[in-house]
Amino acid sequence: MADTQEIKQTLWDKMADSPFVMVGLTDAHQHSEPLTAQLDKDLVDTLFFFVGKDNRLIGGGAAMAQFVSKGHDFFACLSGTISESNDPAMIDKLWNKQVEAWFPGGKSDPNLALIRLDIDSAELWETDISLSGRLKMLVGGTIKPSESGSHAKVSTTAT
């Protein structure tokens, strides 16, 4: 079972490998939508997203993001606040070919907006089931908590 620091580091490693999350405003009574998180190692507890100015998240507010790793062995629910953050220096820093594909006008595209999710709490799960736990799954045994993986509720995702 991983300690809290290890599971936080795993979150950022997994998100760097596959930065796709479902994001929604908690008070808007609308469905979440898939977005690609832009990660900035200099800003802990913050995810950035390039969106169109007509995106449902542009108005900001309380939000949640859900993440599932590529291998379906790590899960996260991130809670925080979304706000618009059109800082030209941050747009330059986070800009990449994948973003450019969505905004043909480049960094000066009139529809381009940068929003940020400032994380204020998170719940993280790592399904690192032990060998004995996997064997029990095959034969119908009961898996002990120590065999099932790691879980943490945190107020910061900083490692």
CATH architecture: Roll
Q: Total domains, how many?
A: 1
Give me the count of strands. Answer: 8
Helix content: 10-25%
CATH class category name: Mainly Beta
Which radius of gyration do the C-alpha atoms yield? 18 Å
Structural class, by secondary structure, is: alpha+beta
Mean pLDDT: 85
Spell out the blueprint of helices and strands:
Layout: H1 4-17, E1 20-25, E2 33-36, E3 38-39, E4 46-52, E5 61-68, E6 74-84, H2 88-94, H3 97-102, E7 112-126, H4 131-139, E8 150-154
Pfam families: Pyrid_ox_like
Domain General stress protein FMN-binding split barrel: 8-129
Protein name: Pyridoxamine 5'-phosphate oxidase family protein
Explained architecture:
With 159 residues, this protein is an alpha+beta fold. The chain has one domain: Pnp Oxidase, Chain A (Roll), CATH 2.30.110. It is built from 4 helices and 8 strands; from the N terminus they run H-E-E-E-E-E-E-H-H-E-H-E. Strands 1, 2, 3, 4, 5, 6, 7 and 8 form an 8-stranded antiparallel β-sheet that branches. The protein is globular and about 45 Å long. The model is unreliable at 130-137 (pLDDT under 50).
Keywords:
Pnp Oxidase, Chain A; globular; 159 residues; 8 strands; YdaG_split_barrel_FMN-bd; Split_barrel_FMN-bd; 36% strand; alpha+beta
Short synopsis of the structure:
This is Pyridoxamine 5'-phosphate oxidase family protein. InterPro entries: Split_barrel_FMN-bd, Stress-Dev_Protein, YdaG_split_barrel_FMN-bd. The protein is an alpha+beta fold and 159 residues long.
